[in-house]
Write a structure and sequence with these properties.
GO terms for molecular function: sequence-specific DNA binding. By secondary structure, the protein is of the alpha+beta class. The chain is built from five helices and four strands, in the order H-H-H-E-H-E-E-H-E. It folds into two domains: about 40 residues, Arc Repressor Mutant, subunit A (Orthogonal Bundle), CATH 1.10.10.10; about 70 residues, Lrp/AsnC effector binding domain/regulation of amino acid metabolism (RAM) domain (Alpha-Beta Plaits, 2-Layer Sandwich).
Amino acid sequence: MSDNRQTPIRLDDTDRKILSLLQEDATLSLDDIAARVGASKTPVWNRIRKLREAGVIRGQVALLDPDALGLDACFFVLIRTSEHDPEWARRFLAAVRARPEVIEAHRLAGDIDYILKVRVRNARAYDRFYQALISEVKIHNVTALLSMEELKATTALPLD
């Protein structure tokens, strides 16, 4: 997998306020943001532009409600592999990226090699996902954990 770490940029209090507002509601107008941070429009626009150019703001998206879309089942899939060569990793990454059900994927330290967060309609849909995944790439062990209740979910990063 790739290493996309970069040096964090320095943020002042105004940058943090702007980012907090955008994390809460990216549809706010420039006028609203400027008024809430106590600055005029042009300096706020310049800050937002610089934050985009620096890669701090990666994009703006609409957050959809999975339940409203019938994606009622959230599984955390723990994967152990006995394969650790670059070709296997490439195939695994391609398989994970090609599956829209996978909304997060992480390579881990410890006993579990990877964890996937998978959103599907139900257990039957999860089984179809599972069968497709293991047909594409050899996996030593898979454990699926069904989330019974989401206690917290946010896209907002801590800015302190």
